[in-house]
Amino acid sequence: MERDLFVAWFEEATRLVRADRDRLTRLDAAIGDADHGTNLDRGLTEVLKELAGSPPESGAQVLTTAGTTLIRRVGGASGPLYGSLFRQMGKALETPVTLAGFAGAFEEGVVAVERLGKAVLGDKTMVDALAPASRALALAVRDGAEVSVALGQAARAAQEGSKATIPLQARKGRASYLGERSVGHEDPGAASAALFMAALASVAG
Amino acid sequence: MERDLFVAWFEEATRLVRADRDRLTRLDAAIGDADHGTNLDRGLTEVLKELAGSPPESGAQVLTTAGTTLIRRVGGASGPLYGSLFRQMGKALETPVTLAGFAGAFEEGVVAVERLGKAVLGDKTMVDALAPASRALALAVRDGAEVSVALGQAARAAQEGSKATIPLQARKGRASYLGERSVGHEDPGAASAALFMAALASVAG
Amino acid sequence: MKKLINSADSVVEDALNGMAAAHPSLRVRDRVVYRADGPRPGKVGLVSGGGSGHEPLHAGFVGHGMLDAACPGEIFTSPVPDQIIEATKGVDGGAGVLHIVKNYTGDVLNFEMAAELVEGVEVAGVLVDDDVAVQDSLYTAGRRGTGATLFVEKMAGALAEEGAPLAEVAAVAAEVDERSRSFGIALTSCTTPAAGKPTFDLPETEVELGIGIHGEPGRARVPLAPARELATMAMDALHGDLPLRGDLLVMVNGMGGTPLMELYVVFAEVAAYVKGKGARVTRSLVGNYVTSLEMQGFSVTVCRLDDALTRLWDAPVETPGLRWGR
Amino acid sequence: MKKLINSADSVVEDALNGMAAAHPSLRVRDRVVYRADGPRPGKVGLVSGGGSGHEPLHAGFVGHGMLDAACPGEIFTSPVPDQIIEATKGVDGGAGVLHIVKNYTGDVLNFEMAAELVEGVEVAGVLVDDDVAVQDSLYTAGRRGTGATLFVEKMAGALAEEGAPLAEVAAVAAEVDERSRSFGIALTSCTTPAAGKPTFDLPETEVELGIGIHGEPGRARVPLAPARELATMAMDALHGDLPLRGDLLVMVNGMGGTPLMELYVVFAEVAAYVKGKGARVTRSLVGNYVTSLEMQGFSVTVCRLDDALTRLWDAPVETPGLRWGR
Ligand SMILES: Nc1ncnc2c1ncn2[C@@H]1O[C@H](COP(=O)(O)OP(=O)(O)O)[C@@H](O)[C@H]1O
Ligand SMILES: Nc1ncnc2c1ncn2[C@@H]1O[C@H](COP(=O)(O)OP(=O)(O)O)[C@@H](O)[C@H]1O
Ligand SMILES: [Mg+2]
Ligand SMILES: [Mg+2]
Ligand SMILES: [Mg+2]
Ligand SMILES: [Mg+2]
Fold first, then answer.
1. Does the domain spanning D12-178 belong to CATH 3.40.50.10440?
2. Which one, of B6, B3, B2, B66, lies nearest residue B200 by Cα?
């Protein structure tokens, strides 16, 4: 059932974020305010509670519930940004879910993040992981790739995108305050976005 | 000239206190508020300035000037206590200065300290160095000892008295707040009193 | 980490309980701190908020002549839209509500979402961005809001208390921000309860120049120097951005762990600097007002006053963190 | 040592210059801080003082309704008689002067000497000794004066402002002391500028119970515990000495380096404790008021109020460190 798959995505993402909570917070300490791991962990814990408390009926509903919960519970920059990603995906996702449909919804979500954050690729934000992932998905769809291959490529693209933030000077978010001193550090939001994509590849791949 | 001798006493005491300033402050840190070395150093520096600025005419005047300056410049507990010691000595000291006369004046000074501080031997204060020194002086006078011998014995008695404060539980001064935790530390005021006596033995002994 | 807390998770909640217990003039409900005597019909409501850890900002500035409500987020994490929506509705006396928002992505996004979602209340917003340590540019997040937030809250609050309409209150808020600049220097890092260790490592011999109020590292590290030199660095940065002229409101603000005595030492240098530029400190504030947990260090905020703003600054205020005139 | 100072030698002087620059209501002359509007004929003058490093105590409490002058000594070193004599003469409005003296050997001796030497002014004294961490006995220096000093200065100051005679002002001062108790806990040591290193070493996992305000070590070390437990230890010590009953004025005071947020966490626990004993917190104060340089930690001071004292507490006060009602 597609609904369970999406629930599993958030369960796995929560597991990965929790396991990497201190790393995410450390990344945020270096160029931000040392709360990204805590923020996401708190938010995802609430998401799982919400999903368990009033189980949604569709994959799309899982996404909107998760997005709304993140907006309502996280705060900070990442709360509204991740919240908008999933809410927009939920709105755009059609049933039954196909790989192409998912890729389209994901792209809409990423565009929502870019709009809200006024960030473009290379600003050293979560967009630097999300946008390449979306692009990889779209290419995989075009090439008629298997779901597992497509999601694997998306996860890899996100991971590479996150690492690619290291040499960048931040132009958005808290890291931008550091100017040149932001160079040489991975963006925490890009790193957590890579975890989301890895979680998806692992449950649906 | 006796006046020069008393000036030399304060010069030597200043030298010794300055050399041991950090040790005195460390002793005060352990059972007090970490300022005894600084307090005395500041006060004695002012005493030397005062003595140089308006040179007193007699040994007695050196003592009263020093005492008044310590009262006016040090503050804390040790300012009034050392100040009273030297002021009272200055009042009591007769010209020409004899060893017996000095011993008598010193005893009066020590009594002034005890009165002002309401401290008795064994309370773990400067009295624990001053009173034994006074007693040693008196005994030496009784025995007709040489000046150098008498002052040497006084210095030793002060030094031993100071070390004897280590096992005591303080009943006066800041160290009394520590109750049993004051045990095992040398009293900073007793330690500085021993320096005063050592200085005297070194310039007049 | 050594902190007077029960647990990292409960610290914001516990502190709010303490505030509620200490100040009968406040009401705390669902993570919003309100004036107990509000809302007042016809009065513009002032709502601010942001991450916790900056106390007394913002909750300590709720009261007569200043804020009507504050929305405290988790430590260094902006509040969520729900809090802001509740606060906005709760303080509306029919004359609309001003959101005073420090310019951080998180604060801006959450306040924007709340402003969109709240219904039946006219909402205006002001963005505080006074920190000259941050390069301002079209392509970045822009300057941070720090010390000037207190000035904006105080002066806009005074005008609102007089019954001025929303547009005027918002305009004065923007004007105060426009006329204010800040610069901060840290001697030590802060430690967030959740992270449990210092956000940055700073050697005994160095200071961070141009720090914000979230333990963000600054723009540069320089050797520890006497207060006079550090004050000069801060003042040069301010003066270089907005020349010091005329009557000034000057705040020397502690970052939370710096004792008042040291702030006065800095203030003496700042006052001398201002005098040297031919300007006048006509109003001042020295203390821990916009803090960063237990960080040691200071920030200076300067606002170029005119008579109208001076009057608003002097107007009575009665909050836990700032009080005079009543 | 990381401090915002120019030099260890000049820190008191520099801070006083900063105070003078920041507060036109004060006059600083020869190491005495006076009310600029004093002395007032017929009003009893209030003089206090002590070592520096406890800011805002005492100089921050000079002003209408509180002290007429403060005599700041070197860091943690009582002032010298000359200062106290000058201050006493300077504030005398013909109705005599009250010396408010914290019970430390140095403070007592220097104030006593000054009282003896000052001529032509009627002087009364009150000794503040509220710290229950210190065993009280005929054979020791007795209890220290800590947080209650602020209460004594406030309430005696209010009575003096009303024009009460010296004997009455002194009696109320003594009564406030009698009804007040304090207990302090340190998380970290302070560092005096002259010593340059922490007065005591305290492991990351331990706290000092029963500390004073000069970096004196406490009576015992215990493992670091949640705020609730630390607050309970402090309150048990207070309650054991003077049972909590009726209306209470409660101050949760920071030692200088503890952020306000943590003090509110402690206050919540203290308020709950008081409630549990069936007493009432009717007035409170939360903040850094009687400090120990940059020490982290807190003290609780409780005063058993009656209506007369409540009225004196509520009376207007206008000082840099405490202000309400004007
Ligand atoms: N304007 C923006 N657009 C896109 N992503 C952003 C933007 N600002 C911040 N982010 C992302 O949010 C992350 C920080 O999230 P978090 O630490 O939870 O919030 P905060 O910065 O408020 O403390 C950054 O690492 C970055 O990836
Ligand atoms: N009541 C007292 N009688 C005699 N000596 C005392 C008394 N109280 C304190 N002292 C001495 O003063 C010393 C402390 O001096 P100092 O550190 O300069 O002053 P403070 O205690 O005010 O900081 C103690 O070590 C002790 O020897
Ligand atoms: Mg962050
Ligand atoms: Mg001492
Ligand atoms: Mg944050
Ligand atoms: Mg001292």
1. yes
2. B6
